[in-house]
Specification:
536 residues, alpha/beta, 3 domains, 7-stranded mixed beta sheet, 5-stranded parallel beta sheet, 17 helices, globular
Length: 536
């Protein structure tokens, strides 16, 4: 503990940094969280771009945080409340619409049968298969990746323990995992369904926040990644809107830190990590203030941690090469709209519109989605963007004035090169095309827009620390998962420097508002503390 009473310094007040600090505080330590911005949350933040509107600026839905973390940190006691969202919905240009009623199997079967009787009958079998694969992967979320290939006795024991955990997978389970990690979402869905519209709506989980189209290998895993956090120990996590916006979950975790004796400081940007004799000993703030502690934890993107906050000469050359090569492309754009009326979709009119409280997908077909991505890969913003849209004000009336609504659109794709420069005019044109396509399906939308906010990859990186605009702090491709995240030999939340740990979404198991990297990192810190060691 330093003179000011801090056992650990956590760099970054995003939800994972806060979760790590909360678990350290729960164990009796006195952590200090240092957040660069004036508000905690990172990408899980609520801000007020227009008077009276509290907008989830970037991250916009709660989905993957396991119930055990909510319980262990007592988040409901600290103000955390989630409204379960409605079904998935997509309207198409031919005047049809498809709604996935996840909470009503009979209604879902009837809806799917309108497009394909075979698909309606296959859906429950597909869900059972997904559940079996997820059951294999879900325990690994809380597993610290072993140092595969290491021949040291402790690491060999860790590898044996890991192998033992997988002893019951069997040949069929291994085959299923191989398919998930190597196939495209489109090809996987072709094995199960025949209706293009059904397959289009199911494929979107494989491309959200991803620098890939639905026909690209590896997107089957991204699709599964959005499934494996939802159910645990008999509890249904599901998708939901956090009351007060996404910043409310970050605020609740920050209160959990402080309730246990930790400290959270905002407007405290870290300039560098202090290193002495190959050990992290504290941090220097941009103000010049130096703060020391025996443990330093970074929740920042790996490239920010190891290439900006540290001198690369302080790290092994092969590790630096791995971090420089870390793929963190995205091409995403967040468009937030303030509305004076709810959108009225021509394909689904009427006063009872429960799908407006769910996820509204702008996706005409898998081919259209793939073309949109290929345009961005070729250096052009998508002519017809894909978007995952929600209207949180249908369930949470605390975030907008009476009779007003917020439409949150997570859109894709723009060229990855746009992360280097603002491209403001081009982003506005991209948003115009997005609104044009939505208005073609819901004609009243355009006249109901009161305000709009457009945030591209450059601002995501510069203001929110999402290098490349990537919401996962690094792509969820097979070569960047588990023991490779973010570098081989250093996926156990430790680093090449003693006393320095990492806990952001760039570590296992990856992105999403889960809190799992923070929890896992805190566990390893506490283990090292108990053993009296602090290997990087």
């Amino acid at each position: 503990m330093d003179a000011a009473g801090h056992d650990a310094i956590v760099i970054g007040g995003g939800h994972n940094g806060l979760a790590c600090a909360a678990y350290l505080a729960r164990a009796g330590l006195r952590p200090l969280v240092l957040e660069r911005r004036g508000v905690v949350g990172g990408a899980a933040v609520t801000e007020e771009p227009w008077p009276g509107f509290r907008v989830s600026t970037l991250s916009y839905v709660m989905s993957l945080m396991p119930p055990r973390i909510v319980r262990e940190l007592e988040l409901p006691r600290h103000g955390y409340r989630v409204h379960r969202i409605g079904p998935y919905f997509a309207a198409f240009r031919d005047g049809t619409a498809l709604t996935l009623w996840y909470d009503d199997p009979a209604r879902l079967h009837e809806e799917l049968a309108r497009f394909s009787r075979r698909d309606a009958d296959a859906y429950s079998k597909y869900q059972d298969w997904l559940a079996r694969v997820a059951a294999i992967l879900r325990p690994l979320l809380f597993t610290t990746p072993p140092r595969l290939g290491s021949r040291s006795l402790p690491d060999l024991l860790d590898q044996l323990c890991f192998a033992w955990k997988l002893r019951g997978v069997g040949p069929r389970g291994v085959a299923d995992l191989t398919r998930v990690f190597t196939m495209s979402a489109a090809d996987l869905l072709d094995d199960w369904f025949e209706s293009e519209k059904v397959k289009t709506l199911l494929s979107i989980d494989g491309i959200i926040g991803t620098w890939a189209g639905p026909y690209d290998p590896g997107t089957a895993y991204v699709m599964l990644h959005h499934e494996i956090g939802g159910v645990e120990e008999g509890d249904v996590g599901g998708w939901g809107f956090v009351e007060g916006g996404m910043g409310a979950v970050s605020a609740a975790i920050a209160r959990a830190v402080e309730a246990r004796g930790g400290t959270v400081r905002t407007s405290a940007p870290v300039a560098r990590i202090l290193v002495e004799a190959d050990r992290a000993v504290g941090v220097a703030l941009e103000s010049g203030e130096e703060i020391r502690a025996p443990v330093v934890v970074s929740a920042a993107h790996p490239q920010l941690t190891f290439l900006r906050l540290l001198d690369p000469d302080e790290l092994p050359d092969d590790f630096v090469a791995d971090i420089r090569g870390w793929e963190t492309r995205s091409g995403t754009v967040k468009v937030n709209l303030a509305l004076s009326a709810l959108p009225d979709f021509t394909a689904a009119p009427g006063p009872d519109r429960p799908w407006l409280a769910g996820a509204i997908e702008l996706a005409e077909s898998r081919g259209a989605l793939q073309r949109a991505f290929e345009e961005a890969r070729a250096g052009r913003a998508s002519e017809h963007p894909y978007a995952d849209c929600v209207i949180p004000t249908t369930l949470d009336r605390t975030i907008a004035p009476d009779a007003m609504h917020i439409l949150s659109c997570f859109a894709q794709w723009v060229p990855q090169e746009w992360a280097a420069e603002p491209h403001e005019a081009e982003l506005e044109a991209f948003a115009d095309r997005l609104i044009d396509d939505l208005a073609a399906l819901a004609p009243n939308l355009r006249g109901s827009i009161v305000h709009r906010q457009v945030i591209g990859p450059y601002t995501m990186g510069r203001e929110y620390g999402l290098v490349g605009g990537n919401i996962f702090h690094g792509e969820l491709s097979f070569h960047q998962l588990f023991h490779m995240r973010p570098a081989p030999g250093h996926a156990d939340y430790r680093t090449p420097l003693r006393g320095l740990y990492q806990c952001g979404s760039g570590t296992h198991p990856g992105g999403g508002v889960t809190g799992i990297p923070g929890r896992n990192a805190a566990r390893e810190i506490l283990r090292d503390r108990k053993r009296g060691r602090g290997r990087g």
